[in-house]
Every structure is written in C-alpha cells, then in structure tokens.
Specification:
alpha/beta; globular; five-stranded mixed β-sheet; 3 domains; single chain; 339 residues; D-Maltodextrin-Binding Protein, domain 2; Double Stranded RNA Binding Domain
C-alpha cells in the first residue's frame, strides 16, 4: 500500500519530505505520496515569537495524523516541542545534516559589517548571537522562504541574513562541499559558516523527525524504523533534554549541540541574555556507558548502571547540563515557557 506522508507545503518542507519519501521507497519498496498540510505558521506572516513559537508549525500536521489524513509526518526537529504529543511518537530520526548556521552577505564577514548594517533573523537565539559577535549592527525581524530572504540580501534591502546550513543544502542552494549553485538563488552571495563551539544552534537543528501514531500498524513502524540513525538520535535526545529541563521553548535564546565521539557524548550549551551582553555556557563530555553523570558542583548527580538504555542516558546527560546552567543563573537569562 502507498504510504501517505504529511508535510508542510513550503519549498523547504517539501524538499525535506521528498528526501524522506525517496529513502522510504529505497528501504522498503513502497510508494510514498506527499500530502500537503497548511499550518498556522505557514498561513500567518506574524513573527514566530508573537505566534507562540513552540510548535507553531507542528500542531496542524499532528491533527491531520491523528485524524487519519496521513500515515506519517516529517518535521524539522528543531521546530518540535520537547513534550511528547499524546497519541503520537517519533518513529525515526534519520542522519543529521549540517547543524551549523550560515551568515549570508554580499561579501563581508559578520564581524566586518559596518555600524548600522542590517541583519535579518526572527530567532531570539540568533539575535543574541549576532549581538554578541557584531554588537554595532541593527537586527531586523524576518519571515519568508529561503529564496526571498536571499533576494533581500542580493537586492541590498538587507546586509545579511542568518540561515540554517541544512536547509540550504536540502534546497540545492549549496552542494555537499559548500559550493554555491551557480544558477541558484545563492549566486553572487557569500556564505560564512559559524562554528558550533562558539555558535551552537537550536536543539535538533539539521535533524528531521519522522512521526507516526503511537498505535501505528507494524508495517508502518517497520518501514519508518529503517531510516533511524542511532548516533543522531542520541545527540538530539541530549539537546532536547537541555531545553526540557530549562523549561525553554524551541525558540528561546538557547544554543545547544551534541555529538557522539566514540563511546562518549560531547555537549555544548549556551544560554544567552536577549541583549547579547550576557551568557552562560557549558562544554562537557560524558561517557555513554555505565557510570556517574556529574550534575552540579555540590556533588549531586546520577549513577547509571551497566546496560542502561543509551537514549535514556543521553537524556540524563542533557538534563544534568541544564541543571548546572540553572544553578549558575540561567533562569535569569531565558524566559520560561511550556516546552
């Protein structure tokens, strides 16, 4: 039977979902049909923060899945609330694409932009990071698709925009080597990659989530499970646990990136003040096997037994990182909201 894949109708969402559809067909031999669904975030031009931020793109899609309008969904994981959705579960997290942000200009690096230069982004995290890196520029709230954002830089309306590398790669604006497609919307522009150590991105950025009903038939569960990438699942589980413990929504000024390094998990997390003038950060490496997870400087922590579920351990590591940030005053920097 043909699988019905629910997706937002934007060019980027369609590109992401088409990639998952191809992978499903290659893994299972089943045909996959895309089912476009319009979310509140797609229909409104208001800023993401005014729309509530967390889950603004996911709610309508999830309603469609629960109503049986489709068999599975594809989300950008960074846009999903950290709380479980009743009746649904993430059936697979495929291998993550490049998690970095890129600053797009007409030739200058971000720090070389003159005072008053305009930089477009609607993300509180990116706003804080830009203010930290280039405090003399002016920030402009930005919505719209990738092509329109790039056009605003190329036409001189803005001096720079901040975009996710993963989206530019999936749309073919950049190829896997980072080369700009000569005839594409990025032609004539410069793309500056921001390193994840000093510029960690949103929890789950670059990763996709394939969501299914909690009671999905076994054949759908098995088909989706073929796309799972275990190391990506571990990394993003830790990242999302940081947000959940901070009680910070997915559009809060929090940057976090984790990666599996052999038998260890390295995680970097920074909580920013909205003005970019203050921040709190942690860079920690913890073993994914049995052992003690350091929590705070007062000796608290968790001892995880041998054979413990690695995903559960990754979540514990992320929670421990968040608790250390809270002890250092992170709650004073980030507004708390339901995640």
């Amino acid at each position: 039977m043909t699988l019905r894949l629910g997706t937002r109708a934007s060019a980027l969402a369609t590109a992401q979902s088409s990639g998952i559809a191809r992978a499903l067909t290659e893994a299972t031999g089943r045909d996959v049909e895309l089912v476009p669904i319009v979310s509140e975030g797609d229909a409104s031009r208001a800023s993401l923060s005014s729309l509530g931020g967390t889950g603004v793109f996911a709610t309508r899609l999830r309603e469609a899945l629960l109503a049986g309008e489709c068999d599975l969904l594809v989300h950008s994981l960074k846009d999903l609330p950290t709380a479980p959705a009743p009746g649904l579960r993430i059936g697979a997290i495929p291998e993550r694409e490049d998690a970095r942000d890129l600053v797009v200009t007409r030739g200058s690096a971000l720090q070389q932009l003159p005072a008053g230069a305009t930089v477009g982004t609607g993300s509180p995290r990116r706003i804080a990071q830009v203010r930290t890196r280039a405090p003399r520029v002016s920030l402009v709230d930005l919505r719209g698709n990738v092509d329109s954002r790039l056009a605003r830089v190329r036409d001189g309306e803005l001096d720079a925009v901040v975009l996710a590398a993963a989206g530019l790669l999936r749309l073919g604006v950049l190829d896997e080597s980072g080369t700009i497609a000569p005839a594409g919307p990025g032609a004539g522009l410069s793309f500056e990659a921001m390193g994840l150590a000093e510029w960690p991105t949103a929890a789950g950025q670059g990763a996709l989530a394939v969501e299914i009903a909690a009671d999905a038939p076994d054949d759908i569960v098995a088909a989706v499970a073929a796309l799972e990438h275990p190391d990506t699942r571990l990394a993003v589980t830790a990242e999302r646990a940081v947000l959940a413990e901070l009680e910070a929504g997915c559009h809060a000024p929090v940057g976090v990136h984790a990666q599996v390094e052999g038998e260890d998990l390295r995680i970097r997390a920074i909580v920013y003040g909205t003005d970019g003038a203050s921040r709190l950060g942690i860079d920690r490496t913890e073993p994914l096997g049995a052992g003690y997870i350091r929590d705070s400087g007062d000796g608290n922590g968790a001892d995880v037994a041998d054979g413990a579920d690695p995903i559960a351990r990754a979540a514990l590591i992320g929670s421990a990182i968040a608790r250390r940030l809270l002890l250092r005053g992170a709650a004073d920097l980030v507004s708390r909201e339901s995640s």
